[in-house]
Specification:
eight-stranded antiparallel beta sheet; 3 helices
């Protein structure tokens, strides 16, 4: 059983035993609903344990507020340690990214064999914000995968 007190996590009611692209679509729908309410997205991760338990975990603020040069590496290290500690077999890491041309929400979904990157454009109109449709494609975005080979749902 997860030690819910040691991390900022919440159980999530979505299907874990589905193809990875379906898992990505479910997470994308949850993120889209939340974005309409909050109008921003702190980096967080939807994770699946080997037992099929799904939960969302916020990336600690001490990591995300670090020096931008170190934040990415610190987040990666934290994710690897968290995934190992809790036996994570699948995840969808969500974060905002921006350029001069546009702002997007990125959702990187992965398991032991596949990585899919989903992108949803942030559409801001007057005082509202919502996400555009999900555009997903397989990727090698993560050069070193976070889920070890062979770690799967039971």
């Amino acid at each position: 059983m997860m030690d819910w007190q040691s991390i900022d996590a919440a159980k999530v009611d979505i299907s874990a035993d589905v193809p990875l692209d379906d898992f990505l679509a479910q997470v994308s729908a949850l993120v889209g609903q939340a974005y309409r309410d909050v109008k921003s997205l702190a980096p967080h991760c939807f994770t699946v344990r080997a037992t099929g338990e799904v939960y969302a975990v916020a990336i600690p603020h001490t990591i995300t507020r670090a020096d931008p040069e170190e934040a990415g590496e610190n987040i990666m290290t934290w994710l690897i340690e968290h995934f190992e500690r809790f036996g994570v077999v699948r995840y969808a890491f969500c974060f905002e990214a921006a350029s001069q041309e546009r702002s997007v929400v990125c959702i990187e979904a992965a398991d032991h064999s596949t990585v899919i990157l989903g992108i949803r454009e942030i559409i801001r109109e007057n005082d509202t914000a919502h996400l555009g449709p999900l555009k997903a494609s397989p990727t090698q975005f993560m050069s070193n995968k976070l889920i070890p080979e062979g770690r799967q749902l039971h």
